[in-house]
Amino acid sequence: MYTVGVKASPTTENPIYGSLQYLKGVGPWRAQVLGRMGLFTIQDLLYHFPRDYQDRSSIKAIAEVELDTSATIKGKILSVRLRPTWKGRSVLEVLVGDASGTITATWFNMPFIKEKFRTGEEVLLHGKIKRYRYLQMVNPEFEFLNKEKEDEPLSPSGIVPIYPVTEGINQGLFRRLVRKALEFVPYLEEALPGPLIEARHLLPLKEAIGEVHFPSSLESVKKARRRFAYEELFLFQTALALRRQRIKTERGNAFRIGLKVDEHIRRLFPFRLTQSQEKVLEEIRQDMQSPRPMNRLLQGDVGSGKTVVALYALLVAVANGFQAALMAPTEVLAGQHLHTLQRYLQKATLKMALLVGGRASKVRKDDLKAIREGEINLAIGTHALISRDVQFKNLGVVVVDEQHKFGVLQRDRLRQKGLMPDVLVMTATPIPRSLSLTLFGDLDISIIDEKPPGRSPVKTLWIPRRRLTEAYDLIHEEVKRGRQAFVVYPLVEDSEKLDLKSAQEGAERLQSIFPEFRVALLHGRMAPAQKDQIMGSFRDKKIDILVSTIVIEVGIDVPNATIMVIEHAERFGLAQLHQLRGRIGRGSEVSYFLLFADPKTPEARKRLEIITQTSDGFRIAEEDLKLRGPGEFFGTRQHGLPDFKAADLARDLPLLKAAREDAFKMIEADASLESFPLVKKRVLEKYKGRLRLVGVG
Questions:
Q1: d(CA 23, CA 4)
Q2: pTM for the predicted model, two decimal places
Q3: What residues contact 30, with CB distance under 8 A and at least 6 apart?
Q4: Nearest in space to 250 (alpha carbons), one of 420, 409, 131, 366
Q5: Domain termination residue (choose one: 162, 197, 217)
Q6: Tens-place pLDDT, residues 8-53
Q7: Contacts of 289 (CB under 8 A, 6+ apart)
Q8: Nearest-CA neighbor of 576 among 621, 528, 639?
Q9: Is residue 420 part of a domain?
Q10: Are residues 283 and 182 in the same domain?
Q11: Which terminal CB of the chain, N or C, has fewer other CB atoms within 10 Å?
C-alpha cells in the first residue's frame, strides 16, 4: 500500500503513525532502543530534532586551527592512552594527526569511552582549541568516519546534524534512519492554520522538517527552528486556553463579602495594607464573590506581605461557614505560618490545626476527626494535608505557599479535598514572564510589587575567604548591639549527611570564634518539635547566631536578625540566594547579606555579581533563567513544564506571546475547535490526560 515498507498502526491508515520497527534499518532490537528515547513512530523520529550542527564544509587542517576558537578537524587516531590522576580520577588522551600536524583530544573522568577508539581509524573532532603543553581539544564531540560510512556529504551545504542519541544508536546510523523517515514527509499533516503561517512568516511544515534535519544553510536552520518553536508554543497555549475555557464553565462557591466581614477581618491586621496589597485584595474579592472557582497565582517578592493577603482569603471562607487549608513545603514553614496566624488571630474565635509528619498519633487522630466533622476551621500543614486519611467536611479555599516546591499532582490532590474550592497559589520566587505564561498560563496572575513601609535596606557583600576576619568583625559588632545572625551552609553533593556534617563543624567553629555569644544549629533531620523549639528560642532572642542548612530558605520571619552569612555561596542558585536574603531586612535596622565565596567557574562568578548588583527579584529571575534554562529553574519537570524540543523559554518570549495571542483568539472564536480539527488532534496527542492538570498552578 505504501511506497516504503512500514506498517501503519491498526488504528490509523496514515503511515506517519506506523511503528518504527518496520522502517528500513530498524528492526525489533533497534526499535526497543529507540523506544527508550521516546521514539515509537515515524512522526516521533521526524520530530526528534538535532541538538547541534557541524559545518563540515569548513573542516580545518590541524596546523590551521586557532587557539580559543571552536573548530572541526579530521584525522587518524595515532595513539590512545588512559592515565590515572589523583583521587581515583583519570584522563583519556587520544592523539590524532593529519598531513599538517597532530592534536590531542582529552577527556576527564570518562574512562568508559576508551574502548571506542582504535588506532588507525579516521575520526572527526569538534571542540574548542586550547594549548597547555601541546595542542588540545578538551571533551570534544567525536565521530568515526570509516565506521559510520559518512565520508560523503549528507547535504550539499556540508552542514551535518548532531542528534541526542543513546547507547546502541550512533550518529551515523541515526542520520540514515532520519533520511529514510523523510520519505514519509508527504504524509505529514500541517496542524497550523494557513493564515497563521502567513501572518507569522513561518516555514510550511514539509519544508521546515527537511531544513531542520539537513539544512541548506545555517540561516535556514534558524527559520526551521522558529517554525517548530512557534508550533510547540501554540499547541501548548491552545491546551491552556481550552483549560481556561473549561474553568469558566465550572461552578464553585460564591462567597459573601459584605462590609461587616471586610471590616472584621481588617481589624485583625496590626498595620495598614500597601496600595499593591489592596489592589491584589480587590482582585481576590472579585474572584471569591463569583460563582466561578478562583484559580489565581499570587507573586510577590520576599517580604512583600503575601501572607496577609492569603489570610484574608482564608478568613472569608471561614466567615462564610467553610473550612480553609494552607499547605507549605516544609514543617518549619508550616509551623512559622501557624505562629504568624496565631499572632494575627488572637482576638478571633476560629480553631486551627497543624498537620505535619512526625506528630503524636493521638494528636493526629484527634485533629483528623475534628477536620472531618468541621470543627477545625483552618488546617495548616505540609504534604500531610493531602494524605488519604485527611477529609474535610466543606473545604472552601485552598492556599498553596511556595507553590513551586510542590508537583502539579500534589496541588491537585489538595484541591480534590473539597467541592470546587477556590485556589490561591503563592510564590516568593519571582517567575520570569515566559515561565509564568507557560507554567501558569491559564491562571489569573496577581503581583504585589511593593514592600511594607519601614523595612530596612539589605547590603549585599561578596567576601573572598581571605577577608573573613573583617566579616567576623562585622558579625561581632552587630550581635554585640543586640542583633542576631544566620549562618547558612549549602547542600554538598545532594548529601544530607555531608550537609549536616559541614553545618555541625561550622557551628562548633563559630562558637570558638564567638565564645561570648550563644550559637545553635538547625537542620532538616531534626524532629519537628526540636526545630520548633530552636526557632522559638531564636525568635525570643535566646540564640545569637543560628547556624542552619537551607531549611530556613523560605518563610522564616525574625525581624531582629540583621545579618546573614552564606558559606560557599558559589554553590547556591540565584533564586535560592534571593530567597535567603529575604529572611533578613524584615525590621527597621540596616541588614547585611554576606556571601563567603571563592568561585571557580564563570557561571558561579556571574551569579554572585548579579545578586550583589540588584535586589529586584524579577530581574534576578530573568537572569537565573538565562543562566540555567527553564528545565533547571526550579525543577520544572515535576511542575508541568512541557518538554519543548525547539522552543527556548529564555529566548523565545516574543514568539511565546504571539503563540498565546493566536491560541486564545482561536479558542475564543471556536472553543470546540471544530473548524481546526488538526489542531485539536495534535493537542490531544500531546496533552491528553494532562488538560485537567494544566490549570492546577
A1: 8
A2: 0.69
A3: 168, 169
A4: 420
A5: 162
A6: 444 457 899 989 999 988 999 999 999 999 999 999 999 999 998 8
A7: 254, 255, 256, 257
A8: 621
A9: yes
A10: no
A11: N
